[in-house]
Amino acid sequence: MIIFRTRKKVQMDDLNDENLQKKPVVVLTRLPDFTFNALQPPTPQQFDSEAESPDSSGSDMLWEPEDDSGDSDFGAKKKSQHRHKMVNDVNVPSPLVSINNNSTSNSSSVCNNDINSGSKDTNKAAEASPIIVSAAFASSSNETRKERPDFPEIAIALDMVVLARRRVMRWQQGKIVEIINKDDGRVKYKVIFDEKGKSLVSGHHIAKKTNPKLDQLYVGARVLIRSPEDEQCFLSGLLAELPSRKNRLRFLVFLDDHTPVYVSLPSLYLICRQMADPLEDLVDGPHKCFMEQYLRSWPYPHLTHYKEGQTLKIELNGVHQKCQVESVDCSLMKVVFEENGETDWIHRGSLRLEHMSKFLELKQTREPKADNSDSK
């Protein structure tokens, strides 16, 4: 007993020695650039010309791809290192979760496709993969309206001045001279064009020669705009954005040749008979595939986050070509191709973007796995 107590006292004395006491030490660790960038919200220039308060924007979910680790399945076996930032909740459906990776894939392309995955360039900072954003476009139902408003159809009558389709991507002004009721219940309209010629068309290929009211418009509506190259010609397209602060109170229209353009209300004409499926009038191909996924994801369109001066690859004539971002205008950006100096306006979620096509390809391959797991 005496020996035990003596040893215990010695141990306590040793612990009181200042040299043996633990002292706090601060260790600073530098975060990788991709982690730091992922924690930053999108720049205001990307969406909005105005400085918005934190509670004026929608719900943003950001994702930035990481460095490759050798996985061939887009890093499906990596540890989850994604950085997300949610900015305010709004009364709209939950945003789609964005997942992506820099690596290439051997899986089938989006929409059975002809979109080439292309090669990767990870050595240059200017060519680093962008953040992909699935952002609530706006919180107001008037800005995100996707369903057709409950308005009566536009009346079509004899001697009415209309814009009618003469051929694909060429609509012209004319006058209705005859209304023909077919035996199967269809109605056809005989139109004589101002610039000679005539055509027999359906109500799906006629637009009233007056501008619609804002309440009549919705995302997915078939509309016309005047051709910038020919004042006598009008071009058909799908309405993709309604006016909001995020697009400087403009309408975004995707023409049927995949050209995106911002216009004001005086430039829009609404097609009289809207189809139950707005994509029915589109030719099968990459544009139709893109519009299908765009309308499905609305009001959370997938957008890449590029900066001015950044280099990227965009599909042109079936090949991904290197170009540089010249300017960003809300959901669009202007790029300059390095090979020939040509410029082009492109949507930041277009399938022509190499990184966006890879992202949607990966998303498509992972969705069936999620469905299978839910069914078990």
Outline the structure in words.
- By secondary structure, the protein is of the alpha+beta class.
- Among the domains are: 161-295, no CATH class; 306-348, Roll (SH3 type barrels), CATH 2.30.30.
- Helix content is 16%, strand content 26%.
- Strands 6-5-4-3-7 form a 5-stranded antiparallel sheet, with no helix packed on it.
- Strand 8 and strand 9 form a beta hairpin.
- The longest helix has 22 residues, at 354-375.
- The protein is elongated, with a radius of gyration of 28 Å.
Task: Count helical runs.
Answer: 6
The fraction of residues in strands falls at 25-35%
Instruction: Please trace the helix and strand order, writing H or E for each element.
Output: HHHEEHEEEEEEEEEEHEEEEEH
Task: Please tell me how large the radius of gyration is.
Answer: 28 Å
Q: Name the structural class.
A: alpha+beta
How many beta strands in the DSSP annotation? Answer: 17
Q: Which residues sit in consecutive blocks of at least 5 with pLDDT less than 50?
A: 1-10, 41-110, 112-126
